[in-house]
Amino acid sequence: MQRKASAKRIVEEAIKKGYTITKKALDLLQSAEAPLQILNEAIDKLEEETPKTLLIDERLIEELLKPSKKPCQEGVKEEGRGEPGISIEIEVDERYLREWRIQGSLAEFQKHFRNRYEKISRILRERLGAVTDVLSALKLREGQDAYIIAAVLEKSESKKAWILRVDDPSSEATIIAPKNGDVASIAEKILPDSVIGFKVQK
User: What is the pTM of this model?
Assistant: First the structure.
């Protein structure tokens, strides 16, 4: 039997494998009986997709949860037998349901996010190939494009676009994703503090 995992455990497992998870997907996983198993199934499925995406959203989790949504009947008798079916009781360790908090000094937080950025960045570089830093991307000429890896500091929305303020160790920049573009649906699901690979054009 697998006990319910905390939100922290689920997020850490996703980050360790180079993926970002949306809030709705996290809520669905927390309500599942085997969240880490379903998370790994989701990652395996994304690994098979072309082109690959590094975002785990609620659509994918709902798809994986569908088979488990069938109603369970207790005490069902098998045809031709008089013995009742097996009834399973599941106990949940309440320690995993308590609110969790991260404690530490400012220096410890900075070290945590820097290490997290470096770890995910290494994974993304293997997948994206040639990657430039944010400072170099800001110097691109009109019409040139490049891949960058950056952390999302802030996300806002206008009538026509999603606006992301991002940074890496070299600099900070603003990325605008038009709502009528191909990446609008992906930009909508991006969460602050995510470390993501972007293809940008000046």
Answer: 0.49
